[in-house]
Amino acid sequence: KQEVTQIPAALSVPEGENLVLNCSFTDSAIYNLQWFRQDPGKGLTSLLLIQSSQREQTSGRLNASLDKSSGRSTLYIAASQPGDSATYLCAAQHGGATNKLIFGTGTLLAVQP
Amino acid sequence: EAGVAQSPRYKIIEKRQSVAFWCNPISGHATLYWYQQILGQGPKLLIQFQNNGVVDDSQLPKDRFSAERLKGVDSTLKIQPAKLEDSAVYLCASRDFQETQYFGPGTRLLVL
């Protein structure tokens, strides 16, 4: 059974700092690993999707890496801004008919101006 | 392009009452998901539809929860009777042939 864990649960940083969010998963037979952002009272927004054959994906100031052998993924945010404040969730997806996403519990990020 | 629509946005009911949530996915998306997100946790899949057929409902508490997707478009999720532990945000998502799921804003349910 896949279990996804995110560390830390909460993080507060000053504006402009670079930061790393961590995600670990127990079953390395994943199809892909996805990172989402959730703002208070809103749904989830997809940030990055890393296929199992890939090592990393980049979008603007965001870079996500994937190491299947160690069961880990990281989300790197460069030059953080107050607008980056949100909960960040990672999710492991397995193949097959359901393509089910197994989510971690999230990291609550606060970027102080 | 319009996103995933959900209603109502908020609902407060007493335990043992019934409640229904509605979801309208992105036009053309064949796959629709319902998730339950309890405070402080990540979303948990309740049920997945492919068009109007159920693909996975292994984590749906079928003694009290039911869902349907009429004509492979809109979907409703019902809880009857509700329990205190059903207090959560219920998220609907849809997906096309790509892997990305698009989420609605969710319905916040509080059971008193």
Structure overview:
- The complex is a heterodimer of chains A (113) and B (112).
- Chain A is built from no helices and 11 strands.
- By secondary structure, chain A is an all-beta fold.
- In chain A, strand 7 and strand 8 (72-77) form a beta hairpin.
- With 112 residues, chain B is mainly beta.
- In chain B, a hairpin with a 2-residue loop joins strand 5 and strand 6.
- Chain B is globular.
- Chain B starts with a strand and ends with a strand.
- The A-B interface holds A 4, 31-32, 34, 36, 41-46, 49, 89, 91, 93, 97-101, 103-106 and B 4, 31, 40-45, 48, 55-56, 91, 93, 95, 99-106, 108.
Mean pLDDT reading of chain B: 94
Largest sheet of chain A: 6 strands, mixed
The helix-and-strand class of chain B reads mainly beta
Judged by helices, strands and strand pairing, the structural class of chain A is: mainly beta
Name the overall outline of chain B.
globular
Strand residue content of chain A:
over 45%
* Cα gyration radius of chain B (Å): 13 Å
Distance between the termini of chain A: 41 Å
Features:
heterodimer; A: 113 residues; mainly beta; five-stranded antiparallel sheet; globular; B: 112 residues; four-stranded antiparallel sheet; 0% helix
Summarize the structure.
The complex is a heterodimer of chains A (113) and B (112). Chain A has 113 residues and is mainly β.
What is the strand and helix layout of this fold?
The complex is a heterodimer of chains A (113) and B (112).
Chain A: E1 4-7, E2 10-14, E3 19-25, E4 32-38, E5 44-51, E6 56-59, E7 62-67, E8 72-77, E9 86-93, E10 101-103, E11 107-112
Chain B: E1 5-7, E2 10-13, E3 19-24, E4 31-37, E5 44-50, E6 53-56, E7 65-69, E8 75-79, E9 88-95, E10 102-103, E11 107-111
Parallel strand pairs in B: 2-11
Antiparallel strand pairs in B: 1-3, 3-8, 4-5, 4-9, 5-6, 7-8, 9-10, 9-11
